[in-house]
Amino acid sequence: MSDKTTSSNKSLLHDAGTRALIFQIVLLAVVVFVGYYLFSNLQANRADQGISTGFAFLNQPAGFPVLIHLIEYTEADTYGRAFFVALINTVVISLMGIVLATIIGVVMGLARLSNNWLVARLATVYVETLRNIPLLLQMFFWYFAVLAALPTPKNSIVFADFFLNKRGIYSPNPIAQDGFGFVVAGFVLSIIASIALVVWAKKRQTRTGLWFPAYWASLGTIVVITFLALAASGFPIEFDLPQKSRFNVTGGMVLPPEFVAVLVALSTYTGAFIAEIVRAGILSVNWGQTEAARSLGLRDSLTQRLIVLPQALRVIIPPLTSQFLNLAKNSSLGAAIAYPELVAVVMGTTLNQTGQAVESIGLCMLVYGTLSLTISLFMNWYNKKMSLTER
To answer: Are 86 and 66 in contact (CB under 8 A)?
Structure first.
């Protein structure tokens, strides 16, 4: 009897590890079966519609224009080229939006904590208004209510060499000449020198306690070295100035209204959320830190920059990462006002012309996933760098 009980206790079904393994194998088999069924069904339906599977369509001529492109593109180019143009547009609007939203958020976050009643209330109105209005509606506002209300090119608003009209913002376009590579080399050298200066200043302060204005000095280093490189190479830059013709503005560099509307909406909307994150981060720092700094005679600006903000960053960075990710993904809303980013070009025109729905959606998912993971990896690295390290 005891032998039977021992044998029963040693049964495979009574072993927790074995049961877990069996359940995982069964679950994996179900997932594989469902995936195979869906893929087979997809293949059969596409065969009935005469649609091939794969990415060979990317080598076919696109036959449609992309009005905003930072690289050469014509209607005779391929769908692959159009995808690359849309990819660049998406990355550019995302990175520029992140930079502008961060600047706006930091300024407004500090303004909400200002002792000036008017400044604090204006910042509060900005935050509470913009973060409670849908982003798409804000894009429509900037595109249809603001930019579309500008005058025609014939009656452009002129400020110095800048022209503002319904077709966009025209500005001087810098064109590199022979010898500009020397300027680029000088700029890179100045960046390296400024980083070395900041590192030296931090080590010196740790060793001796003496403070050195490293950031202002590094900024001056960049400006001086770059200017000297420009002067040594004979200022190898020419500007193509916009010119007002009878019915249009020609020459120069133009920022189309679609680009401006998306960039402004993304920056101001996300900046409102970042402002609250910055305010919360600063308030999380014990007020005794500020009082101690004032007792040592530090100015308020130095107290904020050297004592409060470095500690607040440890609270700010994690939620700030989420806002950067949201901004990058929200750039897809630009399709609503005809900004040629990934959704508009790939999931819009390309999908409609080729019928390659799975491939088009897959490409967009891959790009947004990669962009989000890249931002996350950088912010996680920065968060780890700013975190407290125990001795």
So the answer is: yes
Tell the residue number behind the tokens 């209005």, with chain if given. 133
Is the Cα dihedral 76, 346, 173, 143 positive or negative?
positive
> Residue 162, SS3?
strand
The token pair that represents 242 in the structure block: 């916009």
Which amino acid would we find at residue 255? L
Percentages (nearest 5) of helix, strand, coil residues in the chain: 70, 5, 20
pLDDT of residue 97: 95
DSSP 8-class letter at 350? I
The per-residue DSSP string of 280-296 comes to HHHHTS-HHHHHHHHHT
Residues in the chain: 391
Residue 179 backbone zone (phi > 0: left; psi -120 to 50: alpha; other: beta):
left
Q: For residue 17, give the amino acid letter.
A: G
**b/e map of 341-378 (b: 16 or more CB within 10 Å)?**
bbbbbbbbbbbeebbbeebbeebbeebbeebbeebeee
d(CA 151, CA 170): 13
CA-CA distances (angstroms) from residue 331 to 133, 263, 374? 16, 9, 16
Tell me the two tokens of residue 383: 């968060």
CA–centroid distance for 114 within its chain? 28
Q: Distance from first CA to last CA of the chain, Å, rounded?
A: 62
The two three-digit tokens of residue 178, written as one number: 């022979």
Q: Give the whole-angstrom CA distance, residue 59 versus residue 241.
A: 37
Name the most confidently modeled range: 39-43, 67-71, 213-217, 219-223: 219-223
pLDDT at 23 over 70: yes
**Which pair of tokens denotes residue 321?**
């990462």
User: If pLDDT is split at 50, 70 and 90, which confidence band does 298 have?
Assistant: confident
Question: Closest Cα to residue 372, out of 333, 322, 317, 335?
Answer: 322
Exposure b/e, 151-167, CB count within 10 A at least 16 = b: eebeebeeeeeebbbeb
Q: Mean per-residue pLDDT for 111-133?
A: 92
- Say how far apart CA 21 and CA 348 lie, in whole Å: 44
DSSP state of 215: H
User: Residues 229-266: pLDDT tens digits?
Assistant: 888 888 888 888 888 877 788 888 888 999 999 999 99
Contact by Cβ (8 Å): 275, 105: yes
Indicate the pTM of the whole model: 0.83
Mean pLDDT of the chain: 87
